Amino acid sequence: QVQLVESGGGLLQAGGSLRLSCAASGRTFSSYRMGWFRQAPGKEREFVSGISRSGGSTIYADSMKGRFTISRDNAKNTVYLQMNNLKPEDTAVYYCAADQGGNYFNPPGSRPSEYEYWGQGTQVTVSS
């Protein structure tokens, strides 16, 4: 089992940048493929990005490509989401999630049901 704690959210103006962090504790962090999701009020949880256990393979939702970058540091048990050129429509609670197992080099999937563990989320609010 793994516990996930997100941090780094906040309130900022459109065009700004934030880096979210997700610290993991428990079982060996490199055992998990990691993902970021977000959920805006009244909307379903939405896939943002995912990263393989090795950190060498990543995937992004189309609307985030070129603006968001996911990375991980297995030595620090942490996954990051660098978000640039933020827009008001990026306003949401951002969650990190862990998918246990899977090929070391393949990225995780984009469906919430594929992830076994979730953090509590961190709020990102982007004003226009």
Descriptive overview:
The relative contact order is 0.32. The protein has strands spanning 2-7, 10-13, 18-26, 32-39, 46-51, 58-60, 68-73, 78-83, 92-100, 117-118, 122-127. It is globular. With 128 residues, it is mainly β. The strands form 2 sheets. Strands 2, 4, 5, 6, 9, 10 and 11 form a 7-stranded mixed β-sheet that branches. It is 0% helix and 51% strand.
- String of helices and strands: EEEEEEEEEEE
Distance between the termini: 40 Å
Globally, the shape reads: globular
* Rounded Rg: 13 Å
Major sheet characteristics? 7 strands, mixed
**Average of the residue pLDDT scores:** 95
Number of extended strands: 11
Number of helical runs? 0
| Fraction in helix | under 10%
**Low-pLDDT runs:** none
- Secondary structural class: mainly beta
What share of residues are in beta strands? Answer: over 45%
Topology record:
Blueprint: E1 2-7, E2 10-13, E3 18-26, E4 32-39, E5 46-51, E6 58-60, E7 68-73, E8 78-83, E9 92-100, E10 117-118, E11 122-127
Parallel strand pairs: 2-11
Antiparallel strand pairs: 1-3, 3-8, 4-5, 4-9, 5-6, 7-8, 9-10, 9-11
Structural features:
single chain; four-stranded antiparallel β-sheet; mainly beta
Summary, kept brief:
The chain is mostly beta strands and about 130 residues long.
